[in-house]
Amino acid sequence: MDLNTLWFILITVLFTGFFFLEGFDYGVGILLPFLGKDDTDRRVIINTIGPFWDGNEVWLITAGGAMFAAFPNWYATLFSGFYVALVLMLLALIVRGVAFEFRSADKHPTWRAVWDWAIFFGSLIPALLWGVALANLLIGVPIGETMAFEGNFWSLISPISLLGGLAGLVGFVLHGAMFLVLKTEGEVQNRARKLASWFWMVVGTLVMAVFLVGFFGLSPDSRPGLWPVVIPLVEVLLMLAGLMSGQKRDGLAFIMSGLAIVFSNVMFFVALFPSVMISSLNDDWSLTIYNAASSPYTLRTMSWVALIFVPIVLAYQGWTYWVFRKRIGRESELKY
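and the corresponding structure tokens:
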């Protein structure tokens, strides 16, 4: 295995960790106005992710930094081509982060309702845009001979990309519901369990729709070869998540919904390899792990840095989840 492949795998791991962890963050934020019937319920919901949400976003920052260092041409083309979508996502995440802190600054119902809806939209927009972005990377975007993006924002909008965005969105909602079942008690837990027990069918239907549209809408050379294997596996995991939730096996239900996200993300990167961005104009203009990569010296140096610091970050974040492992209810001490 060369260093180019190693760094592609590491970036895959970082994005997989991000979608697994931040996925339930997004889902909890989207469910906040609907599962929280009063202010106390909404505080319970927010406090389930309060100690984790900013740490979970570190995975995205690390993935972006790794992409910049290891594959600078990928980073440049992606961020310039998806500029408008990324700005919308960044603004949504800023509003979301502010909302977590500001909602408790005043007890007035209107004040808190405004920030609760800010958390909702700040979670909804990134969840939707991530699915759209990944779908576009898989089907290809207009990249020219000089590795420059030659389209615009509307070039990224298509039935397949919108369907991919919707599938990602509902997948995160299900993951968030599973997390609330795992982390709460009382009425909030009951509402989340009721939602999770049937919502997996909605997610499964959209995942299958993405498969069918991609299979019949893409040329045979563009169809990911793993789809016929991974899509049924994801469907089974979603079904098991719903069944485990209905049987009150909360830990297994959360693991199953998380594995569905993990396998979907791994399938995406495996289908993309060795490309990192596919050109819809000419296959020869696609960015790969070789023509988009940094120098071998940079990759070697980065490998030593990752070897030292990645285990430290994993240990710290694992410790955080262990410390805040208890369930939260209306009688708990609530910070937010």
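(Above: one complete record from the training split.) The mean pLDDT is 86.
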